[in-house]
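Retry 2 of 3 after timeout on previous attempt. Resubmitting C-alpha cells to design endpoint.
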C-alpha cells in the first residue's frame, strides 16, 4: 500500500485542477483506511482490501503492453503496482 503513496508525484501534474488533487487525496486516504482496518482486526476489511487489490490488478495488467510502448516509465510504475 505504501507504493500507492510513492507514485503520487506521477499521478498529479503541475497543471492538475483542484478537483483532480482532491480526487487523488481522497482515493489515497480511503485506500490507507481500507488497508489499515485489517491491521486492527476487522475481518470484513480483509475482503474489501482483497477486492480493491484484485480489481486494481485486473484493471492495470491488460493495459501493460500498450503502456510499455507509449510510456515506458509509467509502465514500470504500473508493473511494480501489479
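Retry 2 succeeded. Sequence:
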Amino acid at each position: 500500500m505504501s507504493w500507492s503513496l510513492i507514485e503520487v508525484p506521477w499521478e498529479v501534474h503541475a497543471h492538475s485542477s483542484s478537483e483532480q488533487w482532491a480526487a487523488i487525496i481522497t482515493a489515497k486516504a480511503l485506500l490507507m483506511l481500507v488497508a489499515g482496518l485489517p491491521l486492527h482486526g476487522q475481518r470484513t476489511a480483509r475482503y474489501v482490501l482483497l477486492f480493491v487489490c484484485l480489481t486494481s490488478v485486473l484493471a492495470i495488467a491488460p493495459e501493460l503492453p500498450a503502456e510499455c510502448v507509449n510510456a515506458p516509465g509509467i509502465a514500470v510504475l504500473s508493473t511494480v503496482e501489479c
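Attempt log closed. The two ends are 11 Å apart (CA to CA).
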